[in-house]
Amino acid sequence: MWIVELIVVLFFIWLGARMGSIGIGFAGGFGVLVLSLVFGLKPGSIPVDVILIIMSVIAAIAAMQVAGGLDYLVYLAEKVLRSNPKYITFYAPIVTYVMTMMAGTGHTAFSTLPVIAEVAKEKGIRPSRPLAIATVASQVAITASPISAAVVFFSSELEKAGVGTLRFLRDDPRRHIEEQISFGGHQMGTTRMAKTEQGGVVDPDCRVFGLQNLYIAAPSVFPTGGQANPVATIVAFAIRLADHLVVKRSSPDTEIVVDVRASEVEKLEAEI
């Protein structure tokens, strides 16, 4: 029976990839319905609030992209970055911070990452530097966004009217945190990065210790997890690794084989 269930899962993953955009999310939902209603699998509790938030963010970004707003923002960002290329490490986080603050979501910063990497390479600056700080800045800016403040205000007004309840912490924060850790949305740290073989699985260049020709580009190389979604950091790591491999491949005796587990990058492509 599990083989049939696996085939169903793979089918809906394939269907979602064919549909593209947010279609992979809807395909995943249909897959869950089939597994629960047809095969009788007992689903867990549905995080409705999280699903609605994600759908709202994706819908807003999709509308912005269709209207040409996102392309215009990227155009302005590229113009600013190219006007001062040697200061890319300082200007990149400012650009991503402003974009996120005005849009209310860090997803807008994803579209600028390729521009940041390209400008840095053209100036001979290692892309990992501006990419890393730009990624952090884009997530920090969420707390400064007027949209975030408006959401909190609106929630508090609904609570006064008896329509909803605003709770920043649950009755038992420790238990809630442990429940989230038990399954997690983004698995990280299983092949953590370290300076020595005793401390981790890969070195600072994402190469597996003891193997000359095996690299890993995945959140598994993170030494620890953060508060925000790791997609942007994964993309930054992938670009950094690609830059390293280009340099390494300049040696005629070197053959490169890369193990890329890019499920998070595929999610990013589907969202933007």
Care to describe what's here?
- The radius of gyration is 21 Å and the shape is globular.
- The two termini are 36 Å apart.
- The chain has 3 domains: 2-46, no CATH class; 48-165, no CATH class; 186-272, FAD/NAD(P)-binding domain (3-Layer(bba) Sandwich).
- With 272 residues, it is mainly α.
- It has a two-stranded parallel ribbon with strand order 1-2.
- The chain contains 12 helices and 2 strands.
Net shape: globular
Largest sheet: 2 strands, parallel
**Cα radius of gyration in angstroms:** 21 Å
How many strand segments? Answer: 2
Strand content: under 5%
Number of domains: 3
In angstroms, what separates the terminal alpha carbons?
36 Å
Instruction: Quickly count the helices.
Output: 12
Low-confidence spans: 256-262
User: Can you list the strand order of the major beta sheet?
Assistant: 1-2
Estimate percent helicity. 55-70%
Instruction: Report the average pLDDT across residues.
Output: 78
SS-based class: mainly alpha
Topology as H/E string?
HHHHHHHHHHEHEH
Structure at a glance:
This protein is mostly helical and 272 residues long.
List keywords for this structure.
272 residues; mainly alpha; FAD/NAD(P)-binding domain; two-stranded parallel ribbon; 12 helices; 2 strands; globular
Would you spell out the secondary-structure blueprint of this structure?
Elements: H1 2-19, H2 23-37, H3 48-66, H4 69-83, H5 88-103, H6 107-110, H7 113-122, H8 128-140, H9 146-160, H10 173-183, E1 215-217, H11 231-249, E2 258-260, H12 263-271
Parallel strand pairs: 1-2
Helix pairs in contact: 1-2, 4-5, 5-8, 7-8, 8-11, 11-12
